[in-house]
Amino acid sequence: MAKSEHPRLIIQNFLSQHLCKELEFIHKSCSAIGYRPNVFSTTLSHLIATNSAHLILPFVPIRERLKAKVEEFFGCEFELFVEFTGLISWSRGASIGWHSDDNRPYLKQRDFAAVCYLNSYGEDFKGGLFHFQDCEPTTVVPMAGDVVMYTADSRNIHSVNEITDGERLTLTLWFSRDGSHDEDAKLISFLSQSLLHSSENRPHSYLPLPASSNMYWFPPEQASNYQLGFDIRFARIHMLGYNLYPSQDKSCFSALDSSYDLSEILMEPLRLVRGDELFDKEFINILHVLQVVQFYCWKASELQTSENEERRKNVVQLSQSQWEKINDLKLMFLKDKQLAETVFSHLTCDKPRQHSFDWVSFSAAVTAWEAYTCKLHKDLLTSLPHWRSHQFIFSVPAVGIENGA
Ligand SMILES: O=C(O)CCC(=O)C(=O)O
Ligand SMILES: [Fe+2]
């Protein structure tokens, strides 16, 4: 139990590299604009709101382990509630000065923090060192898998240096002794409503549904008219080397036609383009594309297949008129390409290319994404009745056994 004047704990390799990568996949395919400049976030309620509630499941065991560790170390077994769980990424320019985590009247319920690093200083981003104001250790170098736990009060004043390159990603949780701030109760109630609703009305209940477009526009000050900046989902897809083609033929669709509701286009079916090839599969909306593309990024090394004659079966060559539509989309959603490159830079110059692209392994990723998603969706439907009856989010043993966990 912590007796120090500055109660804190740092544990290396608390999370597996596999989990770090899985949470990175979730964040890069689901995040929205965050609460501070140059910050993006994925909260669990945002996952529910965008019909991706099944993606809560990978968080469940780690939330349990973190809470147990915090309770053990700070000597408050069975007293704590998770108050907030979120994936938070900081891009170039983001920083936070000296503060404690309960330093606002509306944050007073926060008793403890746990910050898990999902990627690494020097490799994935530059800057972004964490500092405690008093006592050792004064500096924490974020490394994937490590966690820092500390009291949320003024005994642990801390800061984070400005990010100068790349995207720094954490899983951050706060814990409270106050049951009225229990995140689980709110999530279970939201889950119950939204799952009931979605299975009644939607045939593919596991497919993502975007939130309102302004939640994805960067910088957020421009989200009222979309004149400057970019859509973060579109930019992430573009940065990975893809273009998008709007499947539906809209005669009113034009980059210059301001009467067309921009936000609608990315909610509608889209197809994926690489080089001058169009992939012959329709995705239901941009979040669907983004999830599959990020899944391919995560799993590519496991999906490498040898080239064969089947390769060209599911791609077609783009025509001139199709190129025009692709460029129209780019003009609308990637107004400032340079800014997008700055915000989502990958330190690629320091790293060898992670994988080479081919449509055969990409098609395998589409199938594998569907299997991954359906499995989680099924596990969620199995878990929810248990969560509801206990009013508590926990790893349901039957689901764990099925997973081979
Ligand atoms: O990401 C970190 O290392 C700490 C972030 C932080 O201090 C906060 O969100 O309050
Ligand atoms: Fe903080």
TrEMBL record:
SMART domains: P4Hc (SM00702). Its cofactor is Fe cation; L-ascorbate. GO terms for biological process: collagen metabolic process. Residues 72-177 form the Fe2OG dioxygenase domain. The keyword Oxidoreductase applies. Its EC number is 1.14.11.7. GO terms for molecular function: iron ion binding; L-ascorbic acid binding; procollagen-proline 3-dioxygenase activity. Pfam families: 2OG-FeII_Oxy_3. Keywords: Dioxygenase, Iron, Metal-binding, Oxidoreductase, Repeat. It is an enzyme of class 1 (oxidoreductase). The keyword Repeat applies. This is procollagen-proline 3-dioxygenase. It comes from Nyssa sinensis.
